[in-house]
């Protein structure tokens, strides 16, 4: 049995009007095509739904039963259309968000807050991974979007700049460098240093910055941002971290702007949003837009501006 949407709609209008002429006008068609639609519907159902005479139209008992269920089906169809349109606008469903620890601590809470306010019916699933793993999970369609540091972009993935942030030197509160207003790269020579183990971008960036001033880092341990800060507070070594690390408020340590050997502000660390290149997902588009808005609100911009003042 094959029923068409237009057949059900036509029947419901006729059942309400109990008059083919008025029903045809409501449906913006002439009466003969409407009669044919109802006849085809009855043929598909296998019973008469309407009793027609020269004077009136009545619902048969079968027609009354069909009307009740057809109304419910029509209502469900309206809900389905509405849900499909909301999903197409990124308002419902689920958005799977991956984030790198070194990239998200000052942005993710704000992004989540705005998302929940604008799209309360959209479920957000979060998972933390290193940037290379996030890109792999994007390619394998295990996540929809990622907040991360720049990496080599695999085929099928696009990256959009969210913002840039200055680099700071993290030292224990009683470290000899804690009294400095800013710390130059050459002051790091020979000091025990804690590097990033999984963020290849931050590792390369830091090595490049200090290497241009002829500094070789004395790396005693490598880890990820939360552990790095704990090790710094425990006086295991010092570290260079993005400015947003200050929001983690680890006790027993201070942050000082990093400057080059010439006294200029060190290059900033970039923050990106990555997502599938050819996958149409309005929720992802909304995430990119909100991430850029939140980055601007906390002082970041894609050009490297920082509301707290660029070091140097």
Describe this protein's structure:
This protein is α/β, with parallel strands linked by helices and 312 residues long. It folds into three domains: 5-88, Arc Repressor Mutant, subunit A; 93-162 and 271-297, Periplasmic binding protein-like II (D-Maltodextrin-Binding Protein, domain 2, 3-Layer(aba) Sandwich); 167-259, Periplasmic binding protein-like II (D-Maltodextrin-Binding Protein, domain 2). The protein has helices spanning 5-17, 20-27, 31-45, 61-88, 101-104, 108-118, 131-139, 200-211, 225-233, 282-297, and strands at residues 50-52, 57-59, 93-99, 122-128, 145-148, 157-165, 167-172, 183-184, 192-196, 218-223, 239-242, 253-259, 269-276. Helix 8 (200-211) links the parallel strand 9 and strand 10 (218-223). Helix 1 packs across helix 2 and helix 6 crosses helix 10. The protein is rod-shaped and about 105 Å long. The N and C termini lie far apart (76 Å). Mean pLDDT is 87; it is low at 303-312.
List the helices and strands and how they pair.
Blueprint: H1 5-17, H2 20-27, H3 31-45, E1 50-52, E2 57-59, H4 61-88, E3 93-99, H5 101-104, H6 108-118, E4 122-128, H7 131-139, E5 145-148, E6 157-165, E7 167-172, E8 183-184, E9 192-196, H8 200-211, E10 218-223, H9 225-233, E11 239-242, E12 253-259, E13 269-276, H10 282-297
Parallel strand pairs: 3-4, 3-5, 8-12, 9-10
Antiparallel strand pairs: 1-2, 5-13, 6-13, 7-11, 7-12
